[in-house]
Every structure is written in C-alpha cells, then in structure tokens.
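Quick one - inputs below.
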Amino acid sequence: MSHELKRSNAPFFWLLFGAGGMLSALIGPVLVLITGVLVPLGLLAPETLSYDNVVALAQNPIGKLFLFAVIALFFWHAGHRILHTLHDVGVHAGTDAKLICYGLPLVASAVVGLVLLRLGF
Amino acid sequence: MNPPVSKRRPYVRPMTGWWKKNPFFVEYMVHEGTALFVAAYALVLLVGVLRLAQGEAAWNGWLEALGSPLSILFHLALLAAMIYHCWTWFRIMPRTLPPIRVGGKRVAASTITAAGIGAAALASLVLLVLAWGMGK
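Output:
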C-alpha cells in the first residue's frame, strides 16, 4: 500500500504569520505610538496626519505598498496565531476555525487592497 | 473490517485552564494573546484607510475619534501589547531561526535577540523622523 503524503498548505499561512509577526515586532509599537498617542496628544504636529499628507502617502507607490503590507500582514499574523492558540483554550482548529481565522484576513486584505488601488496614484 | 467498539472510557484531560497552573504557560498565553491587539490595531488602520477613501470630512472624523480619551487609553494598551509582542518575538527568535554559525561558532541566543531589538529600535527611529518630517 503506498501512502503519499498530502501536500500541506500550512507553510503558506505560516509565512504570512512570520512576515506579519516580524513587521509588527519591528514597527508595530512606533506606529501605535505615532498614530494613537503622539499625534492625538499634539506631541507631533497634527499636520502629520492631515488629509493631504496621508492621501499623498497612500497615492505614492511605496506608501501604498507600506499601508497594504502593514494592515494585511498584521491581520494574517493575528489570524494564524489565534487559530493555533484556540487549541490551548479547548477549541479544535478545524475547518470552521480556519474559515474564520484565515477568511477574515483574506477579506481584510482584499478590501484594503481595493480601497488603496481606488485611491489612485 | 469493523470499526473498534470500545467499552473503555479513556481519560481525556480537559483543556480548561491547564495553562493557569504554571507561570511559564501563563506568560505563554499572554504573549500569544498579543495577537488580538495586533489585529485590533490593524482594524483601526483599516477603518482609517476606508475613511481616507471617503474624503476629507470622513478622515477628519477618524482623526477626531483617535483624539478621544478612550481612544488614547486604548492605544496605550495597544502600545504595551505591541512592545511585549516585540520583546517576546525576538526572545523566541533564536529558537525559530535555524542555527546560525559565524566563524565556526554558533551565534548566541542573546546576540540574536539583541540584534532584533536593535533593528526594531532603528526602524522606530526612522519612522519617527519620517513622521516628524511629515508634520513640518
């Protein structure tokens, strides 16, 4: 009887988890600091996040890619990590769990990608 | 072949609260839990991008919401979680990376962690300078 190993798609999701984890470890804290603390408290000039500034950032190809990468990869990181931690709280990481934990990041990535593209260049 | 019908009742240890009994595992669940905060911040940014696409008035509304005391407190909590994620991520990195050898000797775990934290500090500085430049 031959038992061929079925090719797993786990490495693909692990790669997204790793990329998101690395990105959030490197710049997660400073991004939260800037957008959530410094600018709202006026410790950085309010103009930093002015509409014109951020539109310019989103329309710049690198800025667009940066925004997409941060939002999408943060979601993918969280989805994969939450999926595998479900086991530790007694929830089986079955197809239902995967649909939510990978489905939501997929939807988020699609929405962010489309909106960023629609903002133009 | 008939499926096995067992009259035994094998003990299956319940999963509830197993991790609370050991401080090491409590810490493990906390650092895994930082993922929820990473997702929360991504959601904040996602809403921001949506508001940006809806025009200047919508964007300013999002900015105003970020300025509320509740939002600032929430972001301080996010900040703490992000910092802890950063710290634990690079603390584990020596084990998630394949063994690295330089000059025949294995690179120490503390070196790998320090390099990661250093990279985060450098990246943070760069982004802070860029943000400061954006405000001028």
